[in-house]
Structures are given as structure tokens and as C-alpha cells.
TrEMBL record, chain A:
Transmembrane segments: none annotated. Residues 632-647 have a biased composition (Acidic residues). GO terms for biological process: negative regulation of TORC1 signaling; positive regulation of autophagy. Pfam families: NPR2 (PF06218). This is Nitrogen permease regulator 2. Residues 588-606 have a biased composition (Polar residues). Belongs to the NPR2 family. Residues 584-611, 632-656 are annotated as: Disordered. The gene is NPR2. GO terms for cellular component: GATOR1 complex; vacuolar membrane. InterPro entries: NPR2-like. GO terms for molecular function: GTPase activator activity.
From TrEMBL, chain B:
Belongs to the GTR/RAG GTP-binding protein family. GTPase involved in activation of the TORC1 signaling pathway, which promotes growth and represses autophagy in nutrient-rich conditions. Keywords: GTP-binding, Nucleotide-binding. Pfam families: Gtr1_RagA. The lineage of its organism: Eukaryota, Fungi, Dikarya, Ascomycota, Saccharomycotina. This is GTP-binding protein. GO terms for cellular component: fungal-type vacuole membrane; Gtr1-Gtr2 GTPase complex; nucleus. It comes from the Eukaryota. The gene is GTR1. It comes from Scheffersomyces spartinae. The keyword Nucleotide-binding applies. GO terms for molecular function: GTP binding; GTPase activity.
Amino acid sequence: MDHSDGFFPIVAVFYAVFHPTEGTKIVYQVPENSIKTKTSNKYKNADKGKQSVDNSDEFIEDNDTSHLEGDHDDFDVGGENDSTKGLFNFDTVKNYIIPKSQLCNKLISVQIGKYKVMGYPVNIENTDYSRNSFNFNFCFVFDCNSDTTPYESAIERMGKMFRVLEEQLFVLSKLDKEYIYFKNRSMISPLTSTGTSPGVSTPNGNEVGVEYFFNPEGNLDHLSTPGHKKTKNISLSSIESLINQIYQDLNTYSECCIPIDLANSVDIKLFPIFPPPVNIKAQHVPIATVKLNLLVDSTWDPTMVKILPYIDGINSIKRISELADADYILTKQCIQHFMHYECLEILDIFQFTNIYAPTNFIGKFLKLLGMAEECQAYVVADSSNSLSKLPLTSFNGYSSLKSNSVPRRDTNDTHPALNGIKSTSMTLNSTQAPLLRKVSASYALESPSKSFMHSARGPSLGAGSNIKMENGSKKATISVPSKTTLFYLYRSLNQQLTLRDWYFHHQKLLVNVDIRRFINFGVSRGIIYRVHSYPILNSIIKSIENDGDDSIEALIHQVQHVKRVSFTSPERIRKEIKDQIIQERNDSGTTNIHNNRSLGQGSSTHFGDHESAYNSVDHTLDYSDWSEVVTEESDSEDSWIESSDGEGYDHESSRKEQEMIDLLKLVKGFQPYDSVCSHLHKSRAEVREMLEALGASSEINA
Amino acid sequence: MSSRKKLLLMGRSGSGKSLMRSIIFSNYSAFDTRRLGATIDVEHSHLRFLGNMTLNLWDCGGQDVFMDNYFTNQKDHIFKMVQVLIHVFDVESKSINKDIEIFVKSLTNLQKYSPDAKIFVLLHKMDLVQVDKRQQLFLIMMEKLQLISDPYHFELTGFPTSIWDESLYKAWSQIVCSLIPNMNLFNESLGKFSSILDAEEIILFEKTTFLVISLTNQSLLQAVDSAPPDDLDPKRFEKISNIIKNYKQSITKLRSNFQNLIIKGSNGNHFYIDVLTDNMYIMVILKDNEQQPNAFHEELLVLENIKNARKWFDKIEVAV
């Protein structure tokens, strides 16, 4: 249950103290009567004058037999007069609210029923107190499912502060008007000392005249040192007002600042504690969940401001960094920060070659209230939008469902940044990515209409001219896709079906549906998941099975050697050695000692005689992070070569060869196609070609 | 084969239960007890007594909240299988009625769950009452309480106590001895030993708490017509407990152990205190023989005798 400001609300607050004769009792609680104690359901006791307070109920006591009828405890106490049943019965937890001394001065939380009570019990030992110690606890009651981590440090601090206040100035124990917590009740009166002290008996059996007593106020008056009279004495006017205020302020404002006196105040501010940011990849697509452009101010990081317009749910992180002309690493960090503060979600690049399949939570669509309605609102699209006119019929011949068939180079298969479909989806999204939760049908309605005002591109949008849009009219009738349709569509996704084929099959049903949003909704709610394709080189598999990496090196040699045969020269070779050194030094991977199986080692054997300046630490590259390294690496490397280049040599082929090496490494690291494509900036078809050059390959969908 | 005995220590808050427990069983001195705090809920102590016997002492906090609990939610937990109930009354208490009410509740529950238990009543803090009024007060109180408990068929034993004198030891000795099943055996053996040693008096103490377990006096063994020892203080045993315990504590401060003690009195009395078994001390009081003046008792002989008696008493202990 989320509170509006993200913190779970406090259900109740109470202040409990250990009374010398009564034991643990709640001195004050807010809201009233939220916690049932015996005193609120009091039975008549032997001092016959007293009547039961509050709820007259089933507790009867017969003084003659002193039978205690009504062993009712917990929740069925209280007659019909009781309007608030109370959250829980205090007696069951009282020994943990004021526990034995071993548990004191620590943050203790107890769960009872549906509630969780968290407090910091304090035990102060001092011979001035009757019973030689004073115990108290400020407790906060929460719902048992609340996340209370923001409150923990605040409660602890408050407990410690009151501990010190009590130790030094007896702030809390003096609240009781009768000074029942102290041995010597003669606190107020200065110096007249013959107050009786019940707790102290002496050998001769006489009452000890109490000459010693403590009375800070009295002492100060007595001393009357200059300036002392002017200092305001510490006193807590009432604990009730303090607790009341804490309760209200924390629930309303998530912070409170209540002065206790000139020097002390209860200062609490709640900070939400978020989990640490996760690692994200270049091919992830961020989509904003809050209107970030409304939050921007002058203190924002410039990179963040730069990338902000490109966060639209379509651009991958790599793409964002390119479009915004920002450094990739910085972009990634910005996105991670946004994620940490839960401002955006991460999705996959939307491509028609993606494959999705239902998860086992598909039932949530039917069971969770409101999910289906939200889905409808989010995915509805103008029926006259361009998607329905997608020239997909030209791909009719492409009916093979196997994704590892020979790829054909077609416009739809290019990199998402370049294909025609992109233009369509871009039009759909030129509105900012809406808040996923608060989308109304009219908003969805507006977006396609607006987008068409701006769209002017794409040959595949040839349908644009056919569309008659009434300018600004909101009265176009839209038929909202029904829930069954949507559910059927979700269900019909399977692992053999690319989106394109799926669309083709269900074209009629998808007339009113914005596919991209449809998929996004499903993925973010967990009812469908993305099936990734992984390119696998058979030779790599074999090498793993045979437990030797030589084939990789052989491949690399092959690649490099073929290209380089005509270019070997001492300087060139030295350059290449240095390249390798740079590569290795730039590795962000772990350095496991591997028996002579690193790439560097392989290259060193390849470059046999020229190993001189070689750093022969074995590396095993961590391929999951390799992708970033590759990209900067190739940049730096290229620039380095170019800057020191003194020979005419082929940049093009070295780049290609570098790409091959990168591809090899990515494939070795079992990266999905998205990742490979993002890093190499190539379309899937091109990547497949390159793979073929390397040897037999296959694809796995998972 | 060890036996566990459950002792319930109840009474209102501040009546002195935890204090007594600390003094008797934890070697606190009366002055140390100033520092004790209130008992929260029940404090359990396990005490080994005489080797085989384990005393399970339940010191129940006396605040209202706890008391309410004992008689409602936890009553079977608290009152089952109780061997002894020790109820403490504070003579200074302003609300006697409430005290009695609680006592009555305890009796009710005890009758329900452990009808065979023995009940001891301690009127504590007697030192706050004027000396001449003490006996009177005690008698009045005991009468009243006995009246109250008659319907429950419990026999009460009462003691006036104070931590500042030896009455505490007397009460607790009685309490603990009532738990020892084969007291007679102890008494008999002690009698025999006494006649062998020709001792004036022999007393057996428990090692840690120095509570009197058994005693024998020569005058008891002899014929009735011999002169009654009216010059002996009837409270001497408790006083001895008190004194020796304090002595032991002083010794511990010097970081040495108490082994045995031999005192030769000027009036011809010799006191020997020595370890008898692992759990008992024995105190032998020998008098100079009037018929043989100037004869002296061989100290070592006496000690040797005591050592030999050890095996004997060990056997008795094991049978406890």
C-alpha cells in the first residue's frame, strides 16, 4: 500500500514506560485507543471504589471467590460500546516493548497480527530512581507489510536522543507529576529533607532522613549563579503534544521538526532507500515513467539535460548517446541514476523481428483488477493509423517461420534506427512517453492524431496521403479493442513467431492496437517476455566441449592473417603488439589465471619473435562487459593508429578485421543479437553474413 | 538421578523478592542490593543444591501488569507442578487488602494446578517495624492469613524476615529443608557422628548458601533430665550462617578460598568448620571436658574424623 509520497504511513505512535507499581504501561498513544490494554478494559479491583473505565465489558470479578471470569484476551474484548476494536492487545507484546535489560538500547521490532511495532527501548540505571532504573520506549506501529527502512534510523536516533536527555536532565521521568519514578519524592521543595523514602531501609530500622536528593531546578535556584536563571529549563510540556505532532507531521510531510527547548528538537526526515542501480546494456531502451522535462532545473547535470529529449521509449541507450552527442559511459550512468530513482523503466528495442512469448503470469491479465482496462487504454490506437497500412503484404512470400533461414535483406530488418517502421513508431511517440499508469483513453486518442500532423516521412507511409484527419477534431470514433481480443493476442504470441509474422496473421484484430505499446505493456507487466536470439559459432561450441580455446585463436589468426599478409612490417607488427597491450590494459574483465588460454597469449605466439615489450599476464576477458570495452576500444585504437600512421595502409580492412574480432568476442560471450547489432552498428543480416565468414553457425532462441 | 523442584516466589512489586534471592543464592551482601532493578516478567534461576537436587526458582515480577497476566493468560504455565510457593508480604505496604487479594488468587490457582504444594509466607522488611511490635504483628498477620487459606486446605508456615539480620536465613533454611526428602537420615547420621566425637553440637551447612541443613545438639541426645542449654541463643544458627557467609565474602575479596576454620574460644569451646562433602560444610563444636582440665583436643584428629565421615555423608547425599 503506497502512500502518496512513497512512504508507508505510520498507523499509530505510543510512548510506554515501566511504572514501579503498575509495570509496563502506555502513557500516551495516538490515535486514541488504538491499542488495547488492560487499563482500557479495566475490571473492578479490590479497592472497591474504582469502576471500569471505558468499555464496560465481560470482565466480572467476584471478590469472595476471586474468580476471574472472562479469560478473553486479544480481540474479542470489549462490549458493543467499543467503536475502535483496537489494533492489537498490548499485553502480548508488553514484554518486548519494555524488555529485560539485555534487549534494551537496541532497535526492536515485533510483529503482532497484521501490525509491526518498532521501537528503541531504553534502560537507564541510576540510583535516584525508585527501583534503580528507568525504562521507556517510543514505539511506532506500522502495517506488517510496510517497508520501514526509512523509519529505522529515525526511530533509533530519537531513542538515543531521549536517552541522553533523560540521563542528563530527567526530562521524561519528571513528566509524572507525582515523581513516582524517583526514590525521593521531595523533588520540588528545596532542602527540607525529611521526606520518607519507602524504598530504603536501614540497619537500625529507622527511617533515614533524606538529606540527599536531587533537584536540578532547585539546585540551580539555590546556586543562583549569574545567567542560570535566564536559561530556560528543560521540560517537556507534555508528551502528548509531542507524540501527536510527530504522528501528524511524519504522515503528512514525511518530516518533522519539533523543538523541545532552546537547544533540543526532534528532527526527523524520512529518506526513501532505493536498491543500488543495476547494470544496463547498450541495447536497452529506457522509457520514462514520469514527466522528466517538468523536473529539470538549472542544477541538473548537462549530460542528463542533453539526453533527456531522446528518452522516448524507442531509442536504445547507444542510440541516445549518439543522437545527443554525449559520451556513452556518461549516458549510461545518467540512465542508471534515473533508474535508481525509479523515473524510468527499461525495455527492449522494438523490432519486428523480436519474438515474444507469454510467461506463466499471463493469468494476471485476467485476474488482476484493472489490468485489462489499463491495457485497453494504453494500446488503443486510431484505426486509421499507418500501421494498418503497413506494406507487409509484399512479404507474403516470406512465410518461413524458422528464424535461421537465409535472411533476406529487406527494409524491415535493418537496424531499428534506420528502418521504415521506425518512422511509424516515431510518429506515434513524438508525444513524450506517457505515464504508464495514468493513461486515459482520450490521451491515447490524441496521440495518433497529433502524430499525423507531424509525420511526413517514410516511403512505407505512402498511406499518409490517404488519411483524412479532421483537424483537431476529437470526435473520431475509435473502437477500443476488447479485453478478450487483447488476451487472445497476448496468448497467441509464441516462441516461433516473430512479430512480423504474428502481425501478419492477426492483422484484422490489430486494427485498433498500437503494437509497440501492446508489447511494452505486456513486458513491463510481466505477462510476456522477450525471446532473445543468440548467435552461436559451432567452432566455439566445439572448443568448449574440447576444453581448449585454440580454435578461437585459430580463427583470429585466420582473420588477421588473411588481411594482413601483405602488410607485415616491423613497425606494423609493433603497432599490433601495442594494440594488444592496450586492449589488455583496457580490459574491464576479471583477471583469472587461466592456463595459457588468453587471447593475448595466443597473439603472442602468433607474433612469435616480437614479444619483447609484452605484459604476459594472463587474462580471461569478461565478455559480458566486453561490449563497452570494444566500442571505446575500437575508437581509441582507430584514432591511435591513425595518429601515428606513417604508412599507407588500409583502414577499412583493419576496421573490418577489428569488427570481426569484436564479433568473435561477442559471440564467444554469448551475447544476443540485439547486443551484437548495437555494438557493431550493423543489421542482423550483416551480422549473419559476418558470422558465415567465420564458420558454421546456428542460432538459439531463449 | 536429579530431582527438580519448582519454587514460586510471588509478592507485590517492591516487596523484596529479587533481593532475597540475590542474597541467599547469589552471594550479594545486603548493601549490594541497593543496585537491583525491578524484575521484568519472570526471572528463572536454577540452583544446584546438595548435589543432586536442582531448585528451579521462579522470581515473578510484582507489578500489576504482570500479576494480571499470571492469573489469567499464564496461570497454568506458572502454577503447574509447583513444589513450594513462597509469598512475600511487605509489612510496610499501604494496601494490605490488595496484597491479600493477590495472595488469595495465588491460592486459588495453586489449588487448581498443584494442590500438593507447600506454602511459606514471609513477612518481609521487619526491620522497619519497632522491635517490640514485631512479634505481635507477625502473629496477627499469620492468624489472618491462615484463616484465609483454610478453605483451600493449605497449611501455612510463616516467618518474619529482614535482610539485615539472620531471620532471612532461618526462613530459607526451613524452606529448603522441607524439600529434602531424607532429612531424617541426615539427622540420624549426624547424631551418631556427634556421639562418636563427643561433640557439643554439630551443624550441617549447605556450601554455597550456608543454609542450615541439619543440626544436632548433645543435650537433645542425652536424657531429658540434663540441664537445658538455655544459655544458648536460639537464633544462633542463622547468625552463624550470616557470619560465616560474610566471612566467606571477605575472603573472596582477598582472592583466596575458604577451606576450614578452627577457632579456639576462651571459655573452652572449640569450633571446627570444614568441608564435609562437595556440597556441605560441617561445624563441630567441642567443649573442653570438665573432668579432664587441660586436656586438649587434637585438632588434626578431629579433622581426620571429619574426613572419614565424608564417605558416610556422601552416600546420604547421593540418595537425595
